[in-house]
Specification:
Layout: H1 6-11, H2 14-24, H3 33-41, H4 43-56, E1 65-70, E2 76-81, H5 84-103, H6 128-144, E3 150-155, H7 165-175, H8 179-193, H9 206-215, H10 217-225, E4 230-233, E5 236-241, H11 244-260, E6 271-274, H12 275-307, H13 314-338, H14 347-362, H15 368-374, H16 382-390, H17 397-408, H18 415-425, H19 433-444, H20 450-463, H21 466-475, H22 482-491, H23 497-507, H24 512-528
Helix pairs in contact: 2-5, 3-24, 4-5, 5-9, 6-12, 7-8, 12-13, 13-14, 14-16, 16-18, 17-18, 17-19, 18-20, 19-20, 19-21, 20-22, 22-24
Length: 532
Amino acid sequence: MTGLDPNVIAAFSKDHAIGRILNDIRTDFIFAPQYKLLLDSIPDELWDEATGQLRSGTYNPSSLITAEVPKPSGMTRPGSILYPVDRLLYQAVGDHLASLIDSQLDGTRVYSHRIAVPDPRFQMFDSRGASYEEYKQQVIQLCSEGNFTHAIVADISSYFAHLNYHTLENLLNAAGVPEGLVTLLVKTMLEMWSGRFSYGIPQGLFPSDLLGNFYLSALDAFLASRGTPSLRYVDDLVLFYPAEDVARSSLAPLCRFLRGIGLDLNESKSAILSVESLIREQTELDKLFEAARQEIYEQLQEADDVSAYGFQDPWEIEQEEELLQLEAESLALEQLWEQRADIKRPKRDQLDKFCLGAFAGNRSDVAVSTVIDELGRNPHLTRMYCNYLATFVRRNVEIQRALCRFLESDTCIYDWEMQWPIAALLGVRTLPQSTINTAVAILADRRRSNELRGACALLIAKFGSGASRTILRGHWDTEDSDHVRSAMVFGTMFFGEAERRVLLSHWGTQSPLFALIAKAVRKQLSAASPGR
């Protein structure tokens, strides 16, 4: 059990920690609305519980909640979330150290996860899209200057899973991080979450992004000492050389240094490229979009010229120009999407992410049919597909049926992908009994993952018949996962008032976590029905 200097705890920012977690949750690997409810409804109580454990010296981290997340290759990587107290303290410590850690990074080489200053929207980092675009443009600029002919383009194998604690501890100490915080972060939190191994940090969390970016500052310094120009976005590296033989002779020292800090290059994603090939790789998708946008813009401009009569105010011309540009971009996205079948992976995955995010933001359903067809074919993109479909699911029966079919089929290889249709379907009013029966069967099957079984508990609680809910209630006594049980406590909000009161009085007393969720459920329902 671990405590911390009260003065350090007092310097933690509750608003930053809670605000940033609420943003971070949007890209979590695991669907767990019960934990978000605590941040939304009772943030002060959660903060007091977390910092109280630190002050009293009783803080003891829980295990990670981890899913096997599919990769495009079909292999998997671990994707984790933390229980609420752990996540709040991890974020608070990360926030406290963020400025110091960011100051250790070489801004001429590192473009990922730079701390946003100021940060009124609690994003923690500068815009990822803008930062990656800046990184890409810098790659193109160095390729175009004429000083280099070749580059090592490298990716580190299973990067977050192999970060060595001893190396991280040395880096934090060298940066001037107080000993108590280093002990809390490395010895208490990270070692517990790794199962007492000496390496690996949970991927997919803001503080891990911060630490992962910082860890490679040692590599940045090594490359600077050798006079090697380099650019980095997290663990994606581009190293520039004046000749191919110089690049080849640099591979061995690079690999040797990385092994010294517990890392290896991913051979399938690392290569020596000519700068011309690197430019083509960086600009291929952009050129496709820009060509489509320009062609459509010219067509729209011709049509507008034909229909315009008389004199126009300069302000009106400027406004019309902006509207034409916006319409051209929208239609160009649709045209780019139509070319999807002709684009090979991994560029097609990039196209999907590029287009579907924009379509969802514009509430354009142009991709719905294609996305429905792709469900199950690209497991690694299931979360993105379901996020897009969720935009329209409430009023689109075709989408509802497709998601139900997907859940009821026995073709899914990964439990991870099945939680996202459930997340989307929680926004509809009713579900067929066959889908609920599938959820009941999964909940009872201990071979299935806890993150999927927890999502099934939510689906049963909201849509289940009296018989299905009776099965759910009876499941409590045999369930050994706190994650699944926490979902069940959250699910009581869909029960009748009398039944919910009985269940919360029983379930909500069996752990501090369940007590917090029970309190949040009561507060949420009270706010929704003030007269109750």
